[in-house]
């Protein structure tokens, strides 16, 4: 497996892959001062000709940056799933997506491409999690929820059942979402309230 981005997020992905018995051979990063992450060599900026058939995961936590890079990279995309994650056999997991330590994906949930289901997060039954979403550590997404493209569900947030969460929205850490959230909205608190609407991409 190859990674793009020698970040803290990449360290967690390496931990997942190593626990699953998958070797990480190299990491691309544009910063010439980065030479190694944990024990893995950092080999410079992205090159399509570097081991072209080897799967790659974009190891960048920022959803917009991960989206931009994924549309440009020419390698096939792999997935990283920690063995402690509980994933129902009905779950669909897209290319480039990662499921960290202790995360739970329940029955009939569909997870798109380049999604992060972070440490200890849970996404319950019948959810649809679109591409480039990040469900941060400890967040709880209850049953029957649609999460739109590029949205961040912050650490420890709770999203109540059967709600529609828009595209490129941000749910603040610890928020309790009780109503649908529009595209690009940033919400915080319990119950969650909109504090601003971000600019579209
Ligand atoms: C492994 C990992 O680390 S994964 C990392 C996952 N990341 C996260 O979970 C972080 C999620 N981000 C947040 O919660 C952020 O605070 C955001 C995005 C909601 C807001 O960030 P910003 O847009 O920079 O807002 P800012 O910090 O200026 O705060 C604006 C107001 O909202 C309040 N606020 C910000 N975040 C929260 C929150 N999570 N809960 C309650 N209130 C909040 C601030 O106190 C401030 O209130 P004030 O105007 O009365 O002073």
Automatic annotation (TrEMBL):
Annotated keywords: Repeat, Transferase
SUPFAM superfamilies referenced in this protein's UniProt entry, alphabetically: Trimeric LpxA-like enzymes
InterPro entries cross-referenced by the UniProt entry: AcTrfase_PglD-like (IPR020019), Hexapep_transf_CS (IPR018357), PglD_N (IPR041561), Trans_hexapeptide_repeat (IPR050179), Trimer_LpxA-like_sf (IPR011004)
Annotated ranges, domain PglD N-terminal: 2-72
Pfam families tied to this protein: PglD_N
Domain of life: Bacteria
Family statement: Belongs to the transferase hexapeptide repeat family.
Name by which UniProt lists this protein: Acetyltransferase
């Amino acid at each position: 497996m190859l990674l793009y981005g020698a970040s803290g997020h990449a360290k967690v992905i390496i931990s997942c892959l190593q626990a699953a018995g998958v070797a990480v051979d190299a990491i691309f990063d544009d910063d010439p001062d980065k030479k190694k992450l944990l024990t893995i060599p950092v080999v410079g900026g992205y090159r399509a000709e570097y081991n072209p058939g080897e799967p790659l995961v974009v190891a960048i936590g920022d959803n917009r940056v991960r989206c931009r890079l994924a549309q440009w990279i020419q390698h096939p995309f792999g997935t990283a799933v920690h063995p402690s994650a509980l994933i129902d056999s009905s779950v669909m997991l897209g290319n480039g997506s990662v499921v960290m330590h202790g995360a739970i994906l329940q029955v009939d949930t569909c997870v798109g491409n380049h999604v992060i289901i972070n440490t200890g997060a849970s996404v319950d039954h019948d959810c649809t999690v679109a591409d480039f979403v990040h469900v941060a550590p400890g967040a709880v997404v209850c049953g029957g929820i649609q999460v739109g493209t590029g949205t961040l569900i912050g650490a420890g947030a709770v999203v109540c059942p059967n709600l529609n969460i828009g595209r490129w929205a941000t749910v603040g850490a610890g928020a309790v979402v009780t109503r649908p959230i529009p595209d690009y909205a940033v919400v915080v608190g319990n119950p969650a309230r909109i504090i601003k609407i971000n600019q579209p991409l």
